[in-house]
Amino acid sequence: MHGLAPAHKIDVEDRMMNGVIESSAAAVRVVDTVAQVYRGNRSAIELLVTAWLAGGHALVEDIPGVGKTTLARALAAAIGGSFRRLQCTPDLMPADVTGVSIYDERERTFVFHPGPLFGDVLLADELNRTPPRTQSALLEALSEGQVTIDGLARPLPAAFFCVATQNPLDHAGTFPLPDSQRDRFLVSFRLGYPGENDEVALLAADGAEGDLAQVQAVVDAKTIASLRTHARRIAVAEPVRRYVLALVQGTRRHKAIQLGASPRAALGLQRACQARALLQGRDFIIPEDVQTLAGVCLAHRLSMRPGQAAGATMQAIIDAVDVPR
Q1: Distance in angstroms (rounded) separating the CA atoms of residues 102 and 36
Q2: Distance between CA atoms of 318 and 322, rounded to whole angstroms?
Q3: In which band, very low, low, confident or very high, does the pLDDT at 24 lie, cut at 50, 70 and 90?
Q4: pLDDT exceeds 60 at position 4
Q5: 38 and 45 in contact (C-beta within 8 Å)?
Q6: Where do the domains of the chain lie, and which CATH numbers do they carry?
Q7: Phi/psi of residue 101, each to 5°?
Q8: CA–CA separation, 86 and 79 (whole Å)
Q9: What is the mean pLDDT of the segment spanning 165-190?
Q10: CA distance 92 to 86
């Protein structure tokens, strides 16, 4: 029996690697499908899919009209999920987000009418235009995958994924997201303007609506669950785990930062790195994963001292910390 143990171990490892390869191929299909609609910024698509694979959420800060809505709609179509849009305005109330119970005279009971949160992909557009009370209605949904209404916990769809957008804070009529809210987003990034050739193609197609209408789902609910399971099983070597922690601790000691990244941020960075490794067909994460994702996973969570920039400070910390070999 003892002689069979190594062969059995190899067989298990082979099955795990085959699962990673299959999951990686499925994840790449999602990226490729979204790229057929949102052209010219594949790195942004990969960041979005990475956050989705890791079971996190994404915060996109950019000016209006650069394709944030198109990106979210294309992802929903690619995964065969329902798409909900929440247009955040100053008069938006928490019940407009979570839903409300209305008394049914015929049934003589309250019937719950779900809000936009109860979808597979939620686009919370211009989140920082809605007041803090309404912003806080998202907190439980983002961290626990459920909302509590009338004392009853109501689970969200298993594949629930939020893409929140916000305008730059120098725009009029915005409410800065509190630290607790920003800490719930796994990644935060900007899209920027498309390249010249991509914008010419966009003009020639008269927008992306035609491409969106032709998108077919490339994964189903069972595949999505398998993808996320395999992402969590990606191996993290002890030196790489300590590298993740060193970067997080660096944010807590830096003189330009008033409040550094939380343990939730450290766990989020590790999970994002696992998802990136899966997307690239590896069953382990490498320091390059950490270096690539540290900025987008940590910078938006930092409380900076006046006059200091989170992005530049985070890059300085990445440059200063020794990379494990």
Answers
A1: 42
A2: 8
A3: very high
A4: no
A5: yes
A6: 235-325 (1.10.8.80)
A7: -95, 130
A8: 20
A9: 81
A10: 10
